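Exercise 3.2. Students should predict the tertiary structure of the chain below and write it as structure tokens, then compare their answer with the key that follows.

Predict this chain's 3D structure.
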Amino acid sequence: MEIEFFHNSVCSHCYIQSRRLQEILKDFPEATVKHRSFPLNLHSEGPKSSLNAQEREDVVAMWKRANRVDEEKRFNVEALESGAEFVKPTSYMAEKALKAASKVSDERTLWALSDAIQKAYFENLLDISDIDVLESIIQSFDIDLEAWREAFQDASLDEEMNRDFDRAESFDIDYIPALVVNGESVIKGALRTQLVQEKLNNIRQS
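Answer key:
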């Protein structure tokens, strides 16, 4: 079973589904996972700045909704509500960092790195569009930092990300998280564990 996991570093429900999917796949040892980027808040139209009151309220509301479906309630709403420093990041740098990491690490490490980047954002309120923040996270893994830096400078990474976007479009994926199984079956959304298990079992038996 081959699974393509379309997600993005600033997608709250992707963070939730990542944990669920890792649990689900314990029952599918034959499955392999390929991580795919999806275009979500890739670029900013203006300079980076702290959120105004309304923008902060919007993020608080979004993260509260995420906590309602996240089994572990990991989204740090309390810090946001208390006025902690927070800059809502774009996703381009984090997505590019993951593409570079895919060149110098295995899929298991890549997945753990993706989770760590999202944890830095959703739980620790770090700016994951900041290269120093990303490098600090990468250094906590068994990844050759200099090799990663070299890969990060490769202009072909943008082309690879665009190919992921095109592939998502070819499956009519218009929101994430989404799974493409065996190149044909699409599972969209942060679905409950049991429902995803049922869908994967049906695919396995077909």
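Discussion points: The mean pLDDT is 95. The first strand starts at residue 2 and ends at 7.
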